[in-house]
Amino acid sequence: MRTGTTAVVLFLAFSAFAPPAYPAERKIVATPPLQVMTPGHLDKANGIGPRFQFAQPPSELPAKCATSIRPHLNDGGFVDYPGLRTAEEFRSKAARGVPLNADDAAGAAVHTNYTLSGEGSVSPALCFNAKAGPEARGFCTAVISGNDYTVVYNFDPVACQYDNLGVARALETRLSVGSLPVPEESDCAAKLEEFVTDIDEVLSKKPRDIFDVMDVLDRHFPLHGCTAERVSSVLGKSRYFRSVGMNGPKMHVFSLASREVVVGFGLTDSGDSELPYAKWTTPSL
Q1: Phi, psi of 250 (to 5 degrees)
Q2: Which carries the bigger pLDDT value, residue 282 or residue 245?
Q3: Which one, out of 3, 13, 183, 208, has a CA that is 20 to 30 A from the CA of 192?
Q4: Mapping DSSP to helix (H, G, I), strand (E, B) and coil, where does residue 238 land?
């Protein structure tokens, strides 16, 4: 992806689950008017982010279109779309959709599902019409596949004149994404040791805010290059370690628990963590 002469450089550690990605700093250059947004809780731990928005409309996009665009960059091929986990799955679903041109999409009935064309690294967009008439609007999702990352972006097709490729090009010209190094198993052990220290400290304080626990997950996840044996060994040092089990033939599930909070995550057979979570064991007082 290309960048202009002025840029904001972001050094961020990101996450992913499937396929593998790595817990290292990745250099991202976002060119104004594209700018980074504040991440949500568990974004990083769940492989989502960073998120971006247009601070002002770029010259090639209508103002309402630019305002509607919400992109974020995930490591590897991870796509956080309902029922789908990878860019390959997303593209397969989009290929089975009903392709419409701009005129046909504009005239489609409310709640019609359709696709807008993609090209090369830009997937077709999965779309639907939400409202018709003077307040017409809709919702689309598409992906841009990079070397070891995926940009997932949403936009209003009505405001963007049903031009998926135009939206993608506006993002491609303003994002430059560096590569991630290959992880080592020792990285996994080191991150887990730090996680055990932090989670034990937080749980020992009987937290009253679940976001305090989620912040620990965001600091230490995702994990990559792990083995179930190594994870079991390190987590076993926690005073709150409770169990390890299986979810299907290829997923180990680990859990820790205090009187107040249950914390857990999965580990795939490829050595990547998946879906870390924190929840109350009893209603919070």
Answers
A1: -125, 15
A2: 245
A3: 208
A4: coil
